[in-house]
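for the recovery benchmark. tokens below, seq after
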């Protein structure tokens, strides 16, 4: 796929900065987690995300109007790195909860931090995979396979509306809390696999954190 510009879009190209701000927030939250949760070097995630984000920002500094083969794979890699690091964080906090080394209310605060990064990481992953990403979703005449179906698209006829990053972030939040689809339906196996992984993560965190909280308060 050669470099391509949006020629005729159904609406204005999606803005770059909501996704970058969310990634930066996830990295900052990660930086404040206890070292016991992070078996990997602490500098690794900030370094990787920065190295990946810089060329992507240079390609599309304000709006998503162009995409190349390398930018598409780099965007997917960035989302994948965040999801993997988040799962490492989840394993770390679940380990402390299970072996009894977690200390008081601190572990509850740290669990909230991991929970928040999970929402951001999976929201970014959903945003990247659906319909081949934010550029392809807005290309005129693009009929690529969609991974999710939003209620705005259930009108029975073609609509100009396209989901943006915040829509996937909200969807990630609802899946994390409900452990199941709410208003957005997964259409492909990979979408269901990602949602299942996030739901399992959310359930494990919630169950063990509640159990720990009851133990602290009694």
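predicted aa per position
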């Amino acid at each position: 796929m050669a470099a391509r510009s949006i020629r005729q879009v159904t609406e204005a190209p999606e803005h770059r900065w909501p996704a970058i701000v969310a990634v930066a927030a996830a990295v900052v939250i990660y930086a404040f987690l206890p070292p016991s949760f992070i078996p990997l070097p602490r500098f690794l995630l900030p370094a990787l995300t920065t190295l990946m984000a810089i060329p992507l920002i240079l390609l599309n500094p304000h709006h998503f109007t162009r995409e190349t083969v390398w930018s598409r794979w780099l965007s997917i890699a960035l989302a994948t790195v965040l999801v993997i690091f988040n799962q490492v964080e989840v394993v770390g906090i679940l380990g402390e909860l299970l072996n009894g080394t977690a200390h008081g209310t601190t572990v509850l605060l740290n669990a909230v931090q991991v929970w928040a990064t999970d929402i951001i990481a999976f929201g970014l992953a959903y945003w990247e995979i659906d319909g081949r990403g934010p550029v392809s979703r807005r290309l005129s005449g693009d009929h690529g396979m969609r991974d999710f179906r939003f209620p705005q698209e259930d009108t029975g006829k073609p609509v100009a509306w396209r989901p943006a990053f915040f829509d996937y972030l909200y969807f990630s939040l609802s899946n994390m809390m409900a452990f199941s689809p709410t208003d957005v339906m997964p259409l492909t196996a990979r979408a269901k696999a990602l949602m299942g992984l996030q739901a399992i993560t959310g359930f494990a965190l919630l169950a063990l954190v509640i159990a720990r909280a009851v133990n602290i308060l009694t």
